Amino acid sequence: MSMQPSPMPESARDVPDGSDLGRALGTDFFGLDDLLTDTERALRDGVRRWCDEEVVPRAPDYWEAAEFPRDLVPGYADTRVAGAAIQGFGCAGVSPLAEGMMCLELARGDGSIATLNAVHSGLAMASVHELGSAEQRERWLPAMARVELLGAVALTEPTHGSDVVSLETTARRDGDHWVLDGAKRWIGNGSVCDLAVVWARDDAGDVGGFVVEAPQETDGWDAQVITGKISNRGVRQAHIRLDGVRVPADNRLAEARTFADTNRVLMRSRQTVAWEAVGHAVGAYEGALTYALRREQFGRPLARNQLIQDGLARMVTLITSMQLMCTRMSQLQERGECTIEHAAMAKLHCTEGAREVVAIARDMLGGNGILLDHHVGRHFADVEAVYTYEGSRTVQSLLVGRAVTGMSAFA
């Protein structure tokens, strides 16, 4: 473990493109690696290696073309990050801390891959694991762990984002099936998934999670890819119409009855998103540090300038504070003591901090900061999605505010 950034070798400073950026350059100032077991560290390093060798070199092309990186999915499956903290069902069974660090590495490599994982693992697998019966877990989780079934979760609606508790999608019982009607929007993996958990209100007004298998081949399921995005361009987010979609009765998640059950999944997801934000910050910092060591202006490396060092120090300090908060959150999660307010504070702090880090990095690269070649531009754009999804900044702030005052300020 390197406690301080290692200077780039002279030969690396002479490389004119950004092909070697994205390497880990000493952002673990407080030695958090020491909290992982050897097995967990090896798995985390495997994710880092896969991102460095396979994801980072190809991410700019996927990003610019707004194409889904389907050919990277087998490699993603091999990292074992899908459902990593779940015990059994073919999952890695690591600690929440190790899983968080693995998610960090995905975002450090590419935001679209990290979002694919956040949806598949942090939402879809978490829904089945947290709220499914023993039979349902055995039925779906092993294939999802192998990413033979790619998951999605359809919760957000066209007119209900922050107030998604006002869920309008309906589920009515018809014999041995549930029939789903409504619309969903911003559904990650929605047009490419093999399994989708759709949240809807049943005849009694209760909230349920209904698993639609092979949705792309299901009558009444219409998923249209949302285009024109400036963030996470490589992941497929969809607007979905549900018109009489029939779901077998035993595909309703057994423990999903109220929105409080939904919140159990959202809490887990927000933890993942907080780690993602740290990953974007680390990726941008590494790109800026490498550039500052390599780039010469006025006859000396940028890194010798006081303003540049001040910016680098600010970035790595923010990263360290985010890492420490996420680490403690993961420790509480392992003890079963992490609350939705803990997750909200972590998501709030880490996405705000990541936004500041990527802005400093983008500025440090000057005109080159808007080019995909140096990777900082991708993180600068992609962190905007992380800042918003799984609950906007204001929603997280109100959750924390309610915790400290005992009074709800939600409208």
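(ticket continues) Second input and output from the same batch:
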Amino acid sequence: MSYEPPTPPTNLPTDLVNTLNESTPERLRDIATYAEELAEHKEREARLEEETTEDEIEKRPDDLPDDVPTKATITIKEINDNRYYYWQWREGEKIKSKYKGPVNPDK
């Protein structure tokens, strides 16, 4: 571990870097957790918004419930330090989810 402070990415705005530099370690950890969750959310949103072309043949997975559309993707949610799989898809402006099962069924 270096004794020098880390160098911020060049694409970060100066005001954001200054705010981070003035933050406490606890706040920085909160920011890091939020940033990671926000990135996952935005990536999931982008995946859900992608439209399949008519040329693509959609095969329905064997474990996909009847009330979940073929376009659904699997996401992982952490609840009380446990991780679970959920089917997720978009219906208009809303994102719908349906429980699939635990990530680690042995727990």
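Agent notes: The chain is about 30% helix and 25% strand. Residues 52-57 have pLDDT under 50 and may be disordered. Closing as not reproducible unless the customer responds.
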